[in-house]
Predict the structure.
Amino acid sequence: MKTILLATVLTAVMASGLKAQQRTPPALPPGTKMTSEQLESDILKVYSMDDQGAAFRAYVVKYKGNEVVVSDDLAMTNKKVGDKLKFTVLRHEASTGGMKVNNLRFQVTGFGLSQK
């Protein structure tokens, strides 16, 4: 009885280990390229709202001489004008069916107590 129980436990552990090793992130479709860079800038303007326990946060910063809006999709920050903000610039390039799409996305990074 103990042998059967031990064999069952070992089989379950090995199977879960093999399953974990087989998980790989999905590959980008052909013709797609994503790059990112992390920066820090002073906050010029804050957009925020709290409503019935839900929150919205976005910040305006300078990037390459332009004002851009950096989104905090999870509303994990509560910064003020003049504070430093760490953010990621995501570049997404895709071509499909003879059509090219190149876009930028600005997103707050570095969540944690230092961001609050």
User: Anything to note?
Assistant: The chain has a mean pLDDT of 84. The domain at 28-115 is CATH 2.40.50 (OB fold (Dihydrolipoamide Acetyltransferase, E2P)). The chain has one domain: 28-115. Helices lie at 2-22.
